[in-house]
Amino acid sequence: MGSSGFSWKLADHPKLPKGKTVAVVVLDGWGEAKPDQYNCIHIAETPVMDSLKKGATEKWRLVRAHGTAVGLPTEDDMGNSEVGHNALGAGRIFAQGAKLVDLALASGKIFDGEGFNYVKECFALGTLHLIGLLSDGGVHSRLDQLQLLLKGASERGAKRIRLHVLTDGRDVLDGSSVGFVETIEKDLAELRSKGIDAQIASGGGRMYVTMDRYENDWNVIKRGWDAQVLGEAPHKFKSAVEAVKTLRAAGANDQYLPPFVIVDDSGKAVGPIVDGDGVVTFNFRADRMVMIAKSLEYADFDKFDRVRVPKIRYAGLLQYDGELKLPTHYLVSPPEIDRTSGEYLVHNGVRTFACSETVKFGHVTFFWNGNRSGYFNPEMEEYVEIPSDVGITFNVQPKMKAVEIAEKARDAILSRKFDQVRVNLPNSDMVGHTGDIEATIVACKAADEAVKIILDAIEQVGGIYVVTADHGNAEDMVKRNKSGQPLLDKSGNIQILTSHTLEPVPIAIGGPGLGPGVRFRSDVPNGGLANVAATVMNLHGFEAPSDYEPTLIEVVDN
Ligand SMILES: O=C(O)[C@H](O)COP(=O)(O)O
Ligand SMILES: [Mn+2]
Ligand SMILES: [Mn+2]
């Protein structure tokens, strides 16, 4: 116990034993919705997940995974991996980046902080560059926040502004990029009418340009670097609206738009990043900004040839990695997600194994641990990353690495070297985001088969399983009107929903190690993802810290 009285020691659970192997399985993007033809989880053969649902009613329930239950500003905000895994791992609800930025913009404090003042030094002689995801998805960024940043920066002396836009189509409908670019172009035109030299300088689709994560494919960052910093891209246009329309007409979707630069009448790029400029990445979410932040900030960098490394003043909208302190400068302090369940459990002797494939690896490590990279105690933990396929959209390989992840988990369980074995199965989410219904059905089946491999291993060692999800996605693949009817586009086709949903997610507990009297309580009807951490701590034989959201389980005498 430290001088403050704080202790990592967890109290023993009065009834539940220690020493059981607990598998924690997170199905990414697996929500619960009414069964219809657009519910891929319903259509897919998912006997394992079905049997958990149809089994004991006291061992399966739904939990909230969106909106304020995971620290998002409103109940209209769909859940996402960052806030979902943060809540699952931290056991408490923290006001998340989206909300913190809203507050800082509303109070104006964002413009008084160290980060903005640092970047502002460039306003006199240099250009302010804003790089980020252009949509109102609210998962990585928000258009209204960008608009307020533009307004605030221009009112505080930015005279030359260049916007580098990444089109979305993943957290919002495919095709919506055109409207977002038109909207921001109007804002930039208004700034120009006030004498500010403001325009879009480059762009590209988020999955092909800049927004890779967990070092899956540095080429994605390089494409962005070439367009944003060097002013070089295979496609050159006079306007961003023309760029997006033309590239879409040529067959690209919003997520995968090739990189383009905007050029002037003489064919020169209008906004490469040069010495003396300021740069702000305006996404609040961390995972897909870490790689660009490294490329903009690190002097020692060998991931690709940057060709020219301008001396810039760079700030993130938030600090994206609390362990690496990356980037050094940021406009809004991130949520301080401390005392996560992973850290507690390691301090209490729980040996932990975590695994996913690259595209979700950080979800069960970095996000789970409160946006902190690395181990708490390498002697007690092992994190295994299975390389994801690179350079494909996952509808092409909907099974992804589900079997490989499950087999690693199985081996970890059977080795008896670990008390907690934690995985993320990406399929329903990653394939759901492609909007390909047939492939998403295959993906859901693959995830279900992977769950079976893990549950079988738990059976063999007399362990316990907790199977849950981080938010919805594959359970609804169509955009609906307020009364729930599918929406049609102008040609009478349904509008495919590539994004997450507002649906709750299942949680199931079981396994031979689960005491006979353990069941879900009935007095936490609004339980959400943040209630899962205390639940898992109990299953390891510990009481959760008193400020954690309450456990979902109770032990009744049989
Ligand atoms: O980054 C993404 O892939 C999507 O915007 C959100 O998906 P995730 O929250 O499941 O990662
Ligand atoms: Mn997710
Ligand atoms: Mn997703």
TrEMBL record:
Any single GO CC term annotated in Swiss-Prot or TrEMBL for this entry: cytoplasm
Enzyme active site: S81
NCBIfam families recorded: pgm_bpd_ind
Compartment annotation: Cytoplasm
InterPro entries: Alkaline_phosphatase_core_sf (IPR017850), BPG-indep_PGM_N (IPR011258), Metalloenzyme (IPR006124), PGAM_B_sf (IPR036646), Pgm_bpd_ind (IPR005995)
Catalytic activity: (2R)-2-phosphoglycerate = (2R)-3-phosphoglycerate
CDD domains in the cross-refs: iPGM (cd16010)
Binding site for substrate: H140, R170, D171, R206, R213, R285, A286, D287, R288, K360
Cofactor: Mn(2+)
EC number: 5.4.2.12
Superkingdom of this protein's organism: Eukaryota
Binding positions for Mn(2+) 1 per the UniProt entry: D429, H433, H500
Domain BPG-independent PGAM N-terminal: 102-321
Broad EC category: isomerase
Family of this protein: Belongs to the BPG-independent phosphoglycerate mutase family.
GO biological process: glucose catabolic process; glycolytic process; response to blue light; response to carbon dioxide; stomatal movement
GO MF entries: manganese ion binding; phosphoglycerate mutase activity
Pathway per the UniProt entry: Carbohydrate degradation; glycolysis; pyruvate from D-glyceraldehyde 3-phosphate: step 3/5
Domain Metalloenzyme, residue spans: 20-543
SUPFAM superfamilies: 2,3-Bisphosphoglycerate-independent phosphoglycerate mutase, substrate-binding domain, Alkaline phosphatase-like
Organism from which the protein derives: Punica granatum
The protein's name in its UniProt record: phosphoglycerate mutase (2,3-diphosphoglycerate-independent)
Function field: Catalyzes the interconversion of 2-phosphoglycerate (2-PGA) and 3-phosphoglycerate (3-PGA). Required for guard cell function (e.g. blue light-, abscisic acid- (ABA), and low CO(2)-regulated stomatal movements) and fertility (e.g. pollen grains production).
Binding, Mn(2+) 2: D28, S81, D470, H471
Record note on quaternary structure: Monomer.
